[in-house]
Hints:
- The protein is mostly beta strands.
- It has helices at residues 6-10, 200-203, and strands at residues 18-22, 31-39, 48-56, 64-69, 74-76, 91-96, 99-109, 112-117, 122-127, 131-133, 136-138, 141-143, 167-171, 181-189, 194-198, 214-216, 220-222, 238-243, 246-256, 261-266, 272-275, 280-282, 285-287, 290-292, 324-327, 337-348, 351-360, 367-373, 377-379, 395-400, 403-412, 417-422, 427-432, 436-438, 441-443, 446-448.
- The strands form 7 sheets. Strands 1, 2, 3, 4, 5, 6, 7, 8, 9 and 10 form a 10-stranded antiparallel β-sheet that branches.
- Strand 11 and strand 12 form a beta hairpin.
- The radius of gyration is 26 Å and the shape is flat.
Amino acid sequence: MEGAGDDGILQYFEIGAAIEIKIDEDGFRGSWYEGTVLRAPNDLSSSVLVVYKTLAENDKGKRPLRELLNLVQLRPSPPPENRPSFKLNDEVDAYYNDGWWEGKITQIFRVKYLVYFPLWKEQLPFTASQLRLHRDWINEQWVLPSENKTPSPSKAVIEHNFSKGDRVEARSDDDGFQGVWFPAIFLEKKEAGKYLIDCPPLMSNDETGLFDEEVDGLHLRPRPPDGEVPGRLGYTEKVDAFCDGGWWEGKITQTLEEADEYQVLLQMTGERLSFTPSKLRPHREWVNERWVPPLEPSCSSYNANQFSPEVEAVTEHNFNSGDHVEAMINEDDFYGAWFPAIVLEETEADNYMIEYKTLMNDDGTSLLRKETDGLFLRPSPPDVEVTGRFQVNEKVDALYNDGWWVGTITKVHRRGRYSVYFETLPKELKYDHSQLRVHQEWINGEWQN
């Protein structure tokens, strides 16, 4: 906010203004809570009286919480957003425990997303309606993380040397189309890194509004070299699929041999659609004025994953009958808890029938069996030996109500006893060393501490 006049900043915090509030206390860092200004500040040094929209003064929740705060703890409410889908690795805010928490999308399962929170070192599932793109309030503007960084020349080519009539591809940053490349014809170079193109499939339709006649170099690239799709695409191989006039990044999830088609999971939308080989091509990235991977048109096979370390694949589980797993119960009261189970069978794509090892059915006569989405399953974590004691503030998994819950060590007692605080419950309980384990997260097919 430096360099701006008092009036320019204070206009965002007038009485009745919708705002978001940052709480700097332990357990709340990185979150923003919705609120309203009750008393406006007189200048930059004066306090602001605010009322929270979702937090109450006490457990009864009858009176909304009011506080006097400094301007550095406030920002205007970000612009409204209603995105139908998100991409892998998108930096997002997830609505959780009555506030917005910053995280990153690590896995996509159809219309569901796993979000990793670096501050907690946890992953939780969300739907698109519970997410928004992460933005920062900088110099009185909302800035996406990518806009707040200097573009790396290794990831973007700004200047192109195209000739009139060259076949190129252009992309848009509009919602729902990020990462999709559309065929176009290069017309001429304009000033300040702008290029004039003709994109017939889209420009003939006034309703799309994706492209003006000009695009900048970041949104333009040559067309990939023509080449045959390998004779047989393998499971999880990366491809571009031609759909709705553009090339969408995806990966093979199933081979439909009888129909001579492939089922492709589109990364942008999370949809699974079928394509003939003529509508597919190897996925490549234009990096430092060359195609990666550098596949020659005559090549008959490829593995895009090994050439694109910066673009992570959507991680899917492939469990078999008898596998020992852990299952998350997709209910608010169980967020963050994992329960031991055994896979009985796969009922359909990414859905499994499991039997819990510690939970009983309603009448208590047998172990609970339930069909669950693969999004809520993970392999049983490996045993990690603990040398010595757990430390204060260390994150651990603790046995509670027949499952493993994420908690934080708050006190180390004698004889191997610990106090553990559970933010999701919220409560503090005492545990023996044998009832705790090292906290691990299953991210992109690997266990991480």
